[in-house]
Amino acid sequence: MTHAFVGKVKVVWGAYHGDQCTPKIPTLQHWKGHAMNSGLHTPLCDLLGCRYPIVQAGMGGVARSALAAAVSAAGGLGCLGMVRESPELIAREIGLVRGRTDQPFAVNLIPAATEANLFSEELAACRESGVQTLVYFWDVVPEAVAQARAAGMRVLYQVGSLAAAQEAEAAGAAAIIAQGVEAGGHVHGGVSSLVLLPQVAAGVNIPVIGSGGFATGAGLVAALALGAQGIHCGTAFLATQESFAHEIHKQRVVEAECDQTVHTDAYAINWPKGSPVRVLANAMTEELGNRLFGYDPQQIAREEIAEEEGRAIYLWSTDSPLQSMTGDLQRLAFFAGQSTGHVRQIEPAADVVARLVAEARQVLDRMPNPSSDLQPPS
After folding, report:
1. What does the pLDDT look like over 177-193, one tens digit per residue?
2. CB distance 72 to 350 below 8 Å
3. 30 backbone dihedrals φ, ψ, rounded to 5°
4. 327 — phi, psi (to 5°)?
5. Which residue, among 355, 363, 370, 295, has the nearest Cα to 71 in the 3D structure?
6. Whole-angstrom Cα distance, residue 60 to residue 278?
7. Beta bridge partner(s), residue 6
8. Checking phi first, is residue 373 left (phi over 0); if not, alpha (psi -120 to 50) or beta?
């Protein structure tokens, strides 16, 4: 059970009523006023050392030092996306973040989709650079959690189900990132955040962070109401000035609506079989027709359509357009979640953090007083 004070009100996370699946969460009256005065501070903020309960997703390729540093400097937790990157690049990016801010940040790795020797080298680079927080994703690998903890690093594990959350907790994770199917990029679960968050919050005894569909302050308040202690945002930060995504990707995100994404495992090259993603709809996804799932990366023909510093980029790979790429980028995977409809401009990452906080405070301020407006009918 975790206690925190929001203003003068004691808030309890992780305590439950009997066998019910509903976490004991602050009432509307508790949140109204008190949370606003405290800057939406939750126990997660104390764990991670950040001002606001906003975690930037460690998007592979997209989340480099400029983005991670900007988010951390603005009061959130920035995260470097270092999936299958060399230890030299990881050390360099960590150094660049520290050159821009003295605030805490995280590094995202994916042990389940990384060759064992490379993962060990990545972990060593993080340890030697003094990283305190790692974010892991995809299948739970208990040994990878143990290795991180032995090196003095905490692990936030991103999962898509209650069973995986409990497995990660048993392995020693410090917090769970519960990813709903609304999320962009690789998606490990099959239910919405609205369903998943309260289930995971009720089923584990460590902090839970909501992921998938969160790009507004209203979403932040909703996540807290569902039992989470913060949110994990990808799409909102992809379309920022500091993001390393190519400008055509950023522009597509701000132009797209919530219903213009596709959930499929067709973008399979570079990842294990059966690894679904959510992307923006385009001519390539239209070619799939009704066959959105069942693709084997080993059986997909390698058609080179772009390159990055001498590395071939193939059609139907998991590569998204980056500033360092050239070629037929329009045919690559334009990762984005359903929250894309809430992202309407390319702006500084600090402005995204500030907007999320300001909107959350406005939502709380508009909430009715439950002692009067929410009385049940007589």
Report:
1. 999 999 999 999 899 99
2. no
3. -60, -50
4. 125, -155
5. 355
6. 14
7. 9
8. alpha
Give the angle subtended at the CA of 365 by the CAs of 9 and 337, to the nearest 5°: 100
Q: For residue 214, give every residue at least 6 positions away whose Cβ sits within 8 Å of its Cβ, in sequence order, or none.
A: 193, 220, 223, 231, 232, 233, 236, 339
* Domain extent listing, the chain: 42-243+341-366, 260-335
For 79-106, the pLDDT digits (tens) are: 999 999 999 999 999 999 999 999 999 9
Residues of the chain with pLDDT under 70: 1-39, 369-378
Ordered strands of the 261-264 beta sheet: 185-186, 277-280, 261-264
Q: Of the CATH numbers 3.20.20.70, 3.10.50.40, 3.30.70.100, 2.60.40.2230, which one belongs to the domain with range 42-243+341-366?
A: 3.20.20.70
For helices 116-128 and 87-100, angle between their N-to-C axes, nearest 10 degrees: 30
